[in-house]
Amino acid sequence: MSKRQQDVSALLEALTQAEEKVQREKAQKRAIANQVVAATQKLPADERQAVLEQVSALLSADELTEKFTRLLSQHKVPLTNVASFQQLLVQATRRRQLFNFQPEWKLNNKRYAYQFIDELGVKRPETFAFNQPLASIEPKSATVLKPENGSSSHGVFIFDEQGGAFEVRTGETLPTVSDAMAKASGMVEQGTIKKDSWLLEEFIGDFEGGKPLPPVDLKFYCFFGEVGFVLEVERANETRYCEWLPDGRLAETGRYEGRSFVGSGFTNEQLEIAKRVSQAIPTPFMRIDFIKSKNAFSFGEFTPRPGQFSSFNKEFDRYLGECYLSAEAKVLAHLSSK
């Protein structure tokens, strides 16, 4: 066995031991919870209710046995600690592995996404080239080059009015179009971009001195017709983030410490557009990304499984999980009524 294989084997063994320790601690936690529940039977009804609510808040979904679940349900205690956005998105991934069809993932393809958006009559960038190898693309000023199935802004370049380009992910300014095309080609060769299939589209944004002012991204976390959360992203000299609740209050998510700013937010009209698009997608969750400049608000892309979905703090992860479960129930009711 090679040294590398030995290292991997040792890490797997450590991971197994850590899992065994977690399960022992969970078993101990369930035993203590049983003792607490038994002790509450001697308390007055109002005090018993308060204790059961605390028990519910301290047990996660995999710690709620049938006995606990039945007891809490009988006492109408909300299971406030079981919804998890992170776990629900992981489970959605497993569902896709088991049965490879989920409507939200079809929309992950920009071609289908644009067809869908066109049918809804929502503004999107004009397209100049679609599903083309990089060698066939002819860049021009005030356009954006994107890989057809890219993510996290990899391979996205804005061509300016002076023969240069701006790389969205890194914020780097490239002096010539050829430099940008060479860098995009390198991403294909390195496997950062998995398929040599690109689109060239209108730049939704403004220029200053011939150079692009990167537009702001407004990413709406949508739950079948409702918006739970909005992420505003500014990509100027550095990438900064502002997080909003749908009522316009700032959200406390536990993310982006040291990289946040107070943005300009969104209008009620923009919020309603996101809701309308979400309502047309029969799935519990879809992040719908829009591009905002001084004079325009345009659809960008659909994101079924956002990056960093596991980085929310516990409270916000639970809040988004509740949004997901509520939307899932609405989707089932919607489909059963047809």
UniProtKB/TrEMBL annotation:
Residues 1-35 form a coiled coil. SUPFAM superfamilies: Glutathione synthetase ATP-binding domain-like. PROSITE patterns: ATP_GRASP. Residues 114-333 form the ATP-grasp domain. It holds the Pfam family ATPgrasp_TupA. InterPro entries: ATP-grasp, ATPgrasp_TupA. Keywords: ATP-binding, Coiled coil, Nucleotide-binding. This is ATP-grasp domain-containing protein. It comes from Vreelandella lutescens. The lineage of its organism: Bacteria, Pseudomonadati, Pseudomonadota, Gammaproteobacteria, Oceanospirillales.
